User: Fold these one by one.
Assistant:
Number 1:
Amino acid sequence: MLCNYFRMPEGPSIIILKEAVQSFIGKKIKLAEGNTKIDLSRLNNKTIKDFKSWGKHFLICFNGFTVRIHFLMFGSYAINEKKDRPPRLSFQFTKGEINFYTCSVKIIDGDINEVYDWSSDVMNNDWDPKKALEKLKCSTNLLVCDALLDQNIFAGVGNIIKNEVLFRIRVHPKSIVDKMPAAKIKLLIKDAVDYSFEFLKWKKKFELRKHWLAYNKKICPRCNIPLVKEHLGKTNRRSFFCDNCQKLYS
Ligand SMILES: [Zn+2]
């Protein structure tokens, strides 16, 4: 039994879900239901071939098509149990069930490998840091806080990872990427991956919050002065940073 509320899940939380449902691979769906608009009749009696993830997308693979789940702001799931509200999508198996709530559901026809570029997912085996570097080098006037949240460059990175990485590598969120030294850009790419895997490890142990250095924090642990909290960038997401020890490249 596993029940998990997400709040704007980042890549590592989707990996945890993927690991939790592995036992349903090869199992046939006896009944698919829910208040989603997709054609549920396509799913009845279909066998789940695989579960994949791309960044914050959770992918349920069948022969010839894939169901994409995006948990948006307040999505959640329940495995082998139900919540007290109607599921957006529910799979009943001979033994067991998977239920998804408050999420976006979409069917993607065709070969999923042709739809997704796995090399842009920071937690995928095919992640390619050189491609990320190329994309960042091509940017002009891109704020680093926007760069990290750009799913075409760093699929899976969300607001927690963004804040923690920038704090760890001592880069101010309002820095312009093409004004940053090359070594710093490489460190940014490396730490986006490193922190994502640490996030995964800590989240599994229910101790993620304990390790936050800047996200949701009030005091800089390096300088012992107040952190600044501002809504920054194209996405206007919350940024926590230290004006003293995070360098502004502009
Ligand atoms: Zn500081």
Number 2:
Amino acid sequence: MTDHARPVQVSVPSHTQGPDVLVIGLGYVGLPLVVEAIRAGLTVVGYDISPAVVSGLNSGQSHIADVSAGEIGGLLAQGFRATADEDTIGVPGTIVICVPTPLTADGGPDLAAVVSAAEISARRLRPGSLVVLESTTYPGTTDEVLRPLLEKRSGLSAGLDFSLAFSPERIDPGNPDFGIRNTPKVVGGITPSCTEAAALFYGQFCNEVVRAASAREAEMAKLLENTYRHINIALVNEMAIFCHELGVDLWDAIRCAATKPFGFQPFFPGPGVGGHCIPIDPNYLSYKVRTLGYPFRFVELAQEINHRMPGYVLSRAAAMLNRHGKPLKGAHVLLLGVTYKKDSADLRESPAVFVARGLRASGAYVSYNDPHVDQWIVDGEPVEAAAVETADLVILLQAHSAYDLEAVERSARLLFDTRGVTTSGEVL
Ligand SMILES: NC(=O)c1ccc[n+]([C@@H]2O[C@H](COP(=O)([O-])OP(=O)(O)OC[C@H]3O[C@@H](n4cnc5c(N)ncnc54)[C@H](O)[C@@H]3O)[C@@H](O)[C@H]2O)c1
């Protein structure tokens, strides 16, 4: 950690020439942050490169399930505006970067959006400003990537003239119990005074702020949380495969193990992992570990196991149809619930895509049913929405609360349940 003789003065920054807060990237992470900051009485401008996102928000529409159109209307009434034109932003007191951190074609970290957000930030840095990175990334990004970009382009020094910190987003889309306000917020600055500046900022709308030793520990905390889930899901997925062959009901074994009041947290098998946190983020950590000359074996093994699950679902589906005298080729298979997460409309990295692709490649006719997805396109080709009773086989991939599972069990000719929630379906 850099030791500065003259640390930046810790206070909630505010500038008269612009909003209290600029949020860069108005997606699943950025938009809920806007909501809470405005509720706390701050003035907020949102910047996004997508003209569709910007015009939608400015006309009162929400593209994020967790934020209603009514809430967007309320934000606009309180002065919020979204923009894709950086010249209209002004000079904010605090800048929070919530842009995507995807993977490059060869599986490495793609920090292009973070770099571009850093450039926008650098052009409006002033003495006393606070910059926080929330995008998930490998340990060292805030100090090694963001800091030099900000300092070079602004001519100011981090920790001295302005504050710079990392704060991992822990948003759980669709979770009705935990949001930004009541989920402890981890903050880690590149100096202790930067940590304090970030803690002051989030303390305005988060009930509890947890200070990390530095930005690196805050970055690592997020990756540890995601990797922990990734590995434990892989553990039960691998167990599901051999338990099926051994004739052991793994779901019942998990139910029993979960009664232990200490030292065990239940994880459940499924058709594969989706979203951003589980399939993508641990790659950022394994990339960083590889720079040391060796692999992060737990992550790589978990990836291999979890990626194999859609193929395993396919082989079990084919075996089920075969037992009932029907080949997969020509069979009508309906996928029930195609989003990666229960009660969410989020299709990112959904394993349902891999199942549908495999079914099509085997000559099956694929349809779907999902109350959260109006139109589902796989590999450029729309998948037809259909009713459960029309299919030779129904594969339950996501058990949304809206489903009447008893009705599904009654009307499905054959039911393969990859979530362990039905009584008569064949379970993964
Ligand atoms: N979604 C989650 O549940 C979740 C949870 C924790 C952490 N994260 C992390 O937060 C980050 C953002 O994820 P998200 O889910 O909000 O993504 P998202 O795709 O929902 O939203 C990102 C937004 O940023 C915009 N954008 C892209 N490039 C930009 C740029 N250069 N400048 C300005 N805007 C830009 C996009 O148009 C989009 O509206 C990622 O690093 C992700 O890993 C996501």
